[in-house]
Amino acid sequence: MTPSEVLLWKNLKGKKLDGYKFLRQHPIFYQRNFTDLRFFVADFYCAEAKLVIELDGKIHDFQKQYDVWREEILKSKNLNVIQIKNDELKDQDSVIKKIKTALKSK
């Protein structure tokens, strides 16, 4: 995990956030057949709320089209996706509030 993921994981692990269970580095399959599995690895995933949390570092400045495509696929699977920039983690309370809002809108 990246340092940002470690920081956020401290607030999510062990059902710390309103009793919701989050998984880290969880594969989300979007196409399966006998010879080919295609998937994204979500930074954090809550199955109960159908919520994917993606932390966006500098690399995402150079792959915007890929991120749009990935989000479209995830939404087509009825998953809610929130993106959090690494810089946002400086204000942990704000990030937790953003996640709680997404959890309530499930």
What would your notes on this structure say?
The chain is α+β, with helices and mostly antiparallel strands. The protein has one domain (3-104): VSR Endonuclease (Endonuclease, Chain A), CATH 3.40.960.10. Helix content is 34%, strand content 30%. The protein is built from 3 helices and 4 strands; from the N terminus they run αβββαβα. The chain has helices spanning 3-12, 64-76, 92-104, and strands at 23-32, 37-46, 51-56, 80-85. Strands 1-2-3-4 form a 4-stranded mixed beta sheet, with helices on both faces. Helix 2 (64-76) links the parallel strand 3 and strand 4. The longest helix has 13 residues, at 64-76. It is globular. The relative contact order is 0.19. The model has no long low-confidence stretch (mean pLDDT 88).
Give a nutshell description of this structure.
This protein has 106 residues and is α+β, with helices and mostly antiparallel strands. The chain contains 3 helices and 4 strands; from the N terminus they run αβββαβα. The mean pLDDT is 88.
